[in-house]
Give the backbone structure.
Amino acid sequence: MANKKTDNFQFQFCPNCKFKLIERDEGGKLLVCRKCGFHYYNNPVPCVAVILINKKGKLLFVVRKNEPKIGFYDLAGGFVEEGESFENAAKRELKEELGVSLELFNYAGSTSDNYEFKGIIYKTVTVVLVANIDGKIYPADDVLSVSYFDKKNIPFERFAFPGLSGVIKKYIGRR
Ligand SMILES: [Zn+2]
């Protein structure tokens, strides 16, 4: 199946009036509709991810069950929804994905990645938080499995997103 991968900056038509969009550069590229004046800025999509550390100092990773990158390791987390802070999004995602309620987060770093979904490549910008985890977890339907790794034995070659891997490497490097 020929599945042309495209960037969301390649959108062709105005979502407001269906006229053809043209590309413009105003110190940053954008798409403009010459009929109704609609402007499309290709801003990244905000995401949150959480480095979870247990009492033994091991890091928890989830195995992705859904596209993109099925079967690859990832941090718990996801897209920030409308009206949420990064912390609130983290709390919601951890509750949904792992059945845990966590309150205290530290900041580990931020990064960007490409997230390909249904033929469109979305540019993400991810804030990576850190939290301690103890007690039982209840992985949800959208998680294939969870694994704990010693920071010396993290299989980065099997990680879904290189930007996130970079933040994890930096974080464990300075511990
Ligand atoms: Zn238009």
Notes: The mean pLDDT is 92. The pocket of zinc ion is lined by residues 14, 16-17, 19, 33, 35-36, 38 (CB under 6 Å). Residues 46 and 89 are 10 Å apart (CA to CA).
